[in-house]
Each structure stands twice: as structure tokens, then as C-alpha cells.
Structure prediction request, 676 residues.
Amino acid sequence: MTTFVQVLINGLGVGAVFGLLALGFVIIFKATEVVNFAHGSLALFGGYLAYQVKDSIGWFGAVIVGVLSAAILALAIERLLISRAKHASHDSLAIMTIGIDTIILADVVRRLGTAAAPFLGDPYDTKSVSLGSLTVSRTYLVALATALVLFTLFFIAFRKTSWGLQMRAQSENKEAAALMGIRSSRVTASAWVVGGLLAGIAVFFLATNDIGGGSGLLSAHTVAFAAFPAAIIGGLTSTEGSVIGGLIVGLTSALGAQYVNYEFGVVAVYLVMLVVLVVRPSGLFGRVDQVRV
Amino acid sequence: MSDTEIANPPATPETTGTTPVTARRSTAARVAPLIGWAVLLLVLFLTPVYVPGEWLSVLCWIMAGGVAAMGLTMLIGQAGQFSLGQAFFLLLGGVTYTVLAADGDAEYIGFGLPPLVALIGTIIISGLAGAAFAPISGRLRGIYLGVASLSLVFLGYYLSHELPMLAGSASSGRYAPTFSVPGFDFGETNPQLLLLNVPMGAAERQFWLFAGLTVIAYLVGQGAMKGRVGRGWRAVRDNEAVATVMGVSVPGEKAKAFAISSAYGGLAGVMVVWWYSGLMKPDEAVELGTYSTYTTIALLAMCVIGGLGSLGGAIAGSALVFGLPLALPLLTGSNQTVDASGTAFTPIVITNLVFGILIVLIVLFEPRGLAGLGTRLRNLIRR
Prediction:
């Protein structure tokens, strides 16, 4: 029983990190209708810069550097590439983000080289904490707490501020929103920045022994892959769905890894996604596309 | 919608009597492609005489990737179905061929069929597997379909590790026989064969085999795209609702596209096993290796770089994405692939950077890829 509760907490912790990634992914998709396959690279880029400055300016400084650099990279991709290719279809832009992802991944992995595996979770990584009869690694608890705060902040901003109103208006109907005086370019740019910020925060939990495993930051990109099924399970157009999808993915992989084996934990996520897609082709909470003939 | 109907009144048929609707092509226009093919076949036949073995091996690897990319480019470019699952069909093809062709023993399952029968069986089974994906592919669209098909790669990775009696173990793998037809063996120099006084060894024979299969795959694909099948695909790609109204079965066309694309993937998987001298070995990690998510993205990159929907472009894309990492060490003449510091620009890093940058540039400036560039150049010359 204690193992089960422990696995649940681990799963929720990992799921919260996937939720952070998937939420950014969905915000970008809602604002620009572009599927950002470079999302893992945003996290990797932020993590790489944070790792470079960590020794000289300390962990908290590195967090600020990492998160901001991921956001700036996201902004640069949107301003310099995505917004320039106005004639390209959304699918072509998705393929372009695969190209961006390949470039960043290849170069960051080259720069990291064969030196010792970089880790970013200094204050909480591989430090366990006892809760009654339970022994839980601190990473999962910190991840869960951080994600809860960020989700709350995001949903308050999304529901109550004028920025959130503009975002929702644009994803509802881009032309009507533009006619109402909403500056489309500002909304899309801010969406990419928020996506980059969330990815930059997520990498500080991915590049740990507890979640990312022994190769630290090097495996962050691979682990972040699970954010795609998370976003798909929740439905690409639903922000709440992405959080729930992230938790489903985290729990599935933790339970699969515990009760079958590690490899099954990875593949179980995709099996769950296939089952969800067969029953609901637009994900659990996604908007069903209706075609007018 | 009604406005456009008024603007374009229904055109009255102009055809009177027995005048054919399409103009008959001139004799020169009909003969020219045949001469072109004859020259190409001759060049392919003589290539092993003049090209050294290690370059033949690079060309064979390019052709294996090219066949897989041809299937994918038809699926994405012609039928409009976004797929990230092609690496799974490479794995499926390789495993199926190995199981059918290799002899079984206590450790491995094998049927010991003749290689030709095993090859045909593999292509059919891969095609059926693609069609079996229909309940999912028929319901999904766009990016949902892409990520759903990506799950096949993860599933294949898991199953290949769980079933070592089929796929071989991830550390050592298992062996499948190379190709042979009665009287001629493509793997060994038996019988001895001299062409223009150059002995035709294993590399040379493999080149003929791969070139022959690639030409057949190209012609079959071209035939499918030009005929009724291709028209059905394009109808589905352009507008599913309109295609339904026109009497095209949308789930049927999607299933057909997936079946043909995965049959190409299966054939390419067999070629990959042959290229590794018959070694079938599952990947050690899901993100890096012969059948990994990296390969799936590399195959997509080939299609995009070549121009989505273009078969020749797929081979050109493969020459870049699969050819460059092997050709660079040969060109620079160094065997040093891993630098001591680990931060060097290895051939694979250079290739990844080049194809990443090319994808971005192509989407920005030339959405039709290398095939589009070719058409542009041809038009420049004609003018």
C-alpha cells in the first residue's frame, strides 16, 4: 500500500512537469495553430544556459537565466521564423519546428559533449523526505507544488485579465478578434513567451536524477517527448485538458514502470493515448472540428 | 457559395464527335522518357564497375532510405496523411523478413523460406499492418494522426525488446540470410562473376539488387500516383468532405495510402537488414538508432527536403540525410568519428544541422522542396 501511494505521488509529480510542458504547448497551439515540435528544445536550451552559469552565479540565478533564455528563444522563433512564413500552412510550420528542434538538439548535445552529465535540481534532487511511513523524493513534491502555483496563476490570468480575454478571443475567431482591435501579433508573441517560460521551468525538474535519470540534461529532451501525448490526450485546444493529460501521462508511466517494467511505463503512455484517440479523436476535452460543406 | 456558382456558369462540353479530349503527345515526347530510362539502367548496371565498394555501400544506404521516404512522401504529400511512424515499418519489415527467411532453432523463431518468398511475404505483411492501422488512421487528422503514428515507433521498440526470439536481442541481434535467387547469390561471390574485368563481389551485387528494387519501387509509386489511386488520394488530401461527395471512400483511400506506404517501409526494412550484412538488431534506445524516433524524423526530413509528394525528391532527400553522415568521413579521408573532447562537429552533427537548417529554409522559401527547385531550374533553362 505504501508503495502504491508512493508511486501515485511520484506519478503526480512527473505528471505536473508534463503538465507544465503540455500547457505551454497548448497555449502556443491555441494562439497560432502551430504545433510546436521544438518544445523539448526550448527546455533543453534554457537548461543548457542555466547549467553554464550555475557555478558562477548560483542556483537561483541559474533558474532566472534558464527560464528567461527559454522564453527569449521562443519569442525569437515566433518573431523571426513563424510570423515570417505567413503563406505556409499550419502543417508546414509544424514541420519547420521539427527542423528548429533538430538544429537546437544537435548543437546543444554537441556542446555538452562527453563531459559529466549535467544536473539542475540542486536543492531537491536525490533528497528524500519522510511523510509518516512514506519516503518520497523531494523533487516530486517541489515539482507538484511549483506546478500547482503556476497552474493557478495561469488560469487566473487566463480568466480574469485582459491578456487572457485577448487570448481566448483570438483562439475563438482570429478575424473577429482582429476587427475588435486585438493585436494578433502581440497575442501570438505573448503565447510563445509563456510557452517558453513554462518549458524553462520544467527543465529544472527534468534534468534531475529522480525524473530524467542518470544522464541528466541529456535525457531532458527525450523525457519531454511525453508532453506531446499529454497534450493530445487532453485535447490540443484545451488548457485544462493539457494539465489533466499531463497528470494522466505521469501516473500511467509511474504505474507502468512500477508494476511491469520501466520500458512498459514509456510505451503505456502511448497505448493510453491511442485508446483515448480511438474513443475521442480530438482528445478528452478538445474542440471537435466541424466541417461545413 | 451561391455567388461563385453564378459567376461560373456550368461549362458546356466542347467535345464534338470523336475528337479526343486530350491532345496526343508527339512521338518525341513519348520516346524521350524511354531513352532516359534506358540510359539510367545502363548507368546503374555499370556503376559497380567504376565506383569503389565503400561508395557503393553509401549509395545502397541512400537507396534503402529513399524507398522508405518514397512510401512516406506518397502518404504525406499525395494522400495528406501526416505520419511519424515510418521507422516502425522499417523495424516490422526487418523482423518479418528475418523470421520468414532465417532458419529456426531453440533460441529464435524462423521458417527458413527462400529469400524471394520471404521478401514478397514481408512486403505483403507490412502492407497489411499499415491497413490494420486504419481504425485509428481513419478517424484522426493532422497532428493527432502524426502523434498517434509516432506511438507505433514506441510500441515497436517495446515489442522488439520483449520478443527477442523474433527480433534478436538488443545487444547482439540475429542474422537473416542475404538475398539469392536460384542460380545467383547476391550476398557471396558465388558463382564468380567478372564484368569488364572487374570482379563483382558482395558490394557490387548488393548495389544491383538495391538499384533494381529502388527502380521498381519508383515505377510502382509513379504508376499509383498517376492513376486512379493517386487521384483518390489527392481528392482526400484537398478536401475530405468534397471527396466523399465525389464518391471517393475517404477511409478506404486512407487505408490504401497507409498500406502502400508501410509496404514501402517494409521493403526498406529488408534492405536495411541486407545492408547490415543480414544483421537484425533492435535499438538500444528509443530515441537513437536504426528504427528510432530519430530515424522517423530523418525520414520526414527527407520528404520535406525533397518536396512532399515527389518520389525523385525523396531519393534526393535521402542522399542528403542518409548519405551525408557516411559520405563525409570518406570525403575527408578520416576515420576519426569521435573527438576526444566530445564537442567536435562529427559527420552526424553536421548532417543534423544541415537538414535542420534546410527544413527551415524550405518551409520559408520553397515549400515544394528540391523537386520545386528542379522545376524552377528547368523552367529557367526552357525560357
